[in-house]
Amino acid sequence: MLVGIILVFLVTLGLPSVAATCNVNSQSITRVIGYYDSSAVSRPCAAMMPYFFPQGIYSHIYFASGSIHPDTFEVIPSAERDKKLYTYLSALYMRDLGQELWLSIGGWAFSSHGAPTATTFSDLAAADINQQNVFFRSLSRFMHTYHFVGVDIDWQYPVAAGRAEDYVNYPKFLANLKAVLDEYKFGLSITLPTSDHYLQHFDLAAIEPSVDWFNFMTYDLHGTGQIGDEWTGAINAHTNLTEIRNSLNLLWHRNIPPFKVNMGISFHGRSYTLSDPSCTEPGCPFLSGGDAGECSMSAGTLFNSEINRRIHQDNLIPTLDSTAAIKTLTFPTDQWLSYDDEDTFKLKADFAKSQCLGGVFVRSVDEDDRNHTFSKGLMAALGNELNLDLKTGLTKVAFNEKSTTAGSRSQSSQNQYCRFANCGAACPNGFTEVVRADEPEQIMQDSMGGSAASEQTRTLCCPTSGKVPTCQWRGALETGGCTGGCNSDEAEVGTSIAGCTSGYQSACCSITKSTEPWAQCKWSQTCQSDDTCPSGYNHFVVGSRRGSGGRQSCNGEEHYNYCCSGSSVPDIFSKCEWTTRSNGDDCSGSCPADSVRVAGQSVFLSGTESGCSFGSEVYCCSGGKVPNTHTPVSAVHKEQTAEEFRGYLQQFLANPVIPEGWADRVVERL
Ligand SMILES: *[C@@H]1O[C@H](CO)[C@@H](O)[C@H](O)[C@H]1NC(C)=O
Ligand SMILES: *[C@@H]1O[C@H](CO)[C@@H](O)[C@H](O)[C@H]1NC(C)=O
């Protein structure tokens, strides 16, 4: 009734304030994000290793948190051991088909006063594009290496814990970031506070186009310690549907589309030590945060696992407040606690559906008990089924197929063909690694420059929708020299100089539907100064000094030519572009998702800030019928030989290590 009057009042004022309404019974929420907090492994009790993450419930896992080096802006793990956790979590996609692993960067402690990174987000958002590029490049490398497909910027909070200029800088920074992530179809989300005190400092209209969704932190609204509200001295539930409703209106006033909003749910409660144990209502005074839990080890916070145990041990009877959608407990005499369970999840889930919200997120899944009581409770409250066939142990419907909104990766005709993945990347969904026919213990991989580090290795991936070809490396001789090339009934899908003192090896596969176009095309045996193709292969595709990337470099302006036989260039090699990365080694060149790398070479880049630098560029084809509009001759490498060697010399004098791929060219000249 009261709400109705307020709405009418706002409408008559002409504010675009009315929330969309959806039918609770027909609306479903399939974007269910679970944060995993790295502290989960180091707790004295109630620890949750990544492989105990519940199966069949979450469409996304968010790892909390990644960090940023405050001086260089490079993305770094918050702790060395986190690298192991990424690996465990990324392996989970094998059982939860279509589940996505995202990296959440920042968090409360990251920007809190006194932390070495206290001003890092402000600095980064204010930095010029060259400095931001350092962050973007290292982020993209980091994501490829550890198999993240989205990033969450958890800045708590611009302006309030930063500088006034954050208001204008943050949207610009996010737009730059989104442009880079789009190249790989990586996702982007940010966290938002619910209190207008903090939210007013976000230029939401300017930010909205850049993000896939907002994680609206509708928990920890009140409490003691590092909590986002002013000190009131009175107890208050840490989450409260009345307040959530009001805060969501702040978003609707700013025209944020509801499908971009995820409602936050905490798997912890907030507790107080009461001043007067007989006064236990919201508004009553408190002395301090509640006693720390033995597992949470933080005053004022109890994990749901700890709360549940206490309820069962001490036969506690919680009170349900169905207006606020919260349960409260008073125990043994002076501790007062608010928390959520399946009953209050249901009230919130129905409300989220009625507001047409796109998703929910849990912070954090590791605060649950071993039986996943609360993850399962949330799933039931949402009306979702366990996405798991208990007989086979497999996912029933791939998570990314269930969710029709943003974030699901598009299908492309390129997905019919084998290709080497980007350095460090796993084969995408729908693809498999290929066992080496000559070394059945190993899979087909290309160790760039012979380095065994996984981030320097490219894996051959073939679609599982058709017959997987038989593949092997050919050309290594006992002498250490190599003579590349495949048999006539094979397709060459890549080359590598790893393990070769001269020449190169070829990745050769039997001809199947997935390798057919590769069989139709080949690289010229020798370096060419023009577009001359090998005889019988009349259609020129691209020229590259290092062929597919793994050949000894041609001199100066010469290049190997990739050419195709048949009536035209196969579709897979159309819609191609050179992409350049500066300061890179061979592995810094990555192709966007759903595209195929055909050629790669190192380049000399002039005109950068530092005067000169080396980089790499890759030629990526996204396929389809549209003919090439871009010139297949590298845009960067033109008549630069003299300048190139001057650049090389400068670099060598600064750091006497010969850049990979240049050694042979230099030796020839000396
Ligand atoms: C929920 O919020 C409303 C409005 O701020 C407040 O009046 C009420 O006491 C709160 N309920 C609880 C349980 O904290
Ligand atoms: C988990 O479930 C089992 C079997 O239902 C029960 O005996 C056990 O107490 C539960 N453990 C927790 C931590 O809830």
Kindly describe this structure.
The radius of gyration is 28 Å and the shape is elongated. The chain is of the alpha/beta class. Among the domains are: 31-266 and 340-395, Alpha-Beta Barrel (TIM Barrel); 419-572, no CATH class. Helix content is 22%, strand content 23%. It has an eight-stranded parallel barrel with strand order 1-2-4-5-6-7-8-15. Strands 9, 10, 11, 12, 13 and 14 form a six-stranded antiparallel beta sheet that branches. Strands 16, 17, 18 and 19 form a four-stranded antiparallel beta sheet that branches. The chain contains 15 helices and 28 strands. The longest helix has 18 residues, at 129-146. One 2-acetamido-2-deoxy-beta-D-glucopyranose is lined by residues 236-237, 240, 242-243, 282, 321, 324, 326. Belongs to the glycosyl hydrolase 18 family. Chitinase class V subfamily. GO terms for molecular function: chitin binding; endochitinase activity. Its EC number is 3.2.1.14.
Keywords:
TIM Barrel, 15 helices, alpha/beta, hydrolase, 670 residues, chitinase, single chain, eight-stranded parallel beta barrel, Chitinase_II/V-like_cat, chitin binding, disordered N terminus
Count of individual beta strands: 28
Q: Structural class from helices and strands? A: alpha/beta
Q: Which cofactors or ions or other ligands sit in this model? A: 2-acetamido-2-deoxy-beta-D-glucopyranose
Q: Count the DSSP helices.
A: 15
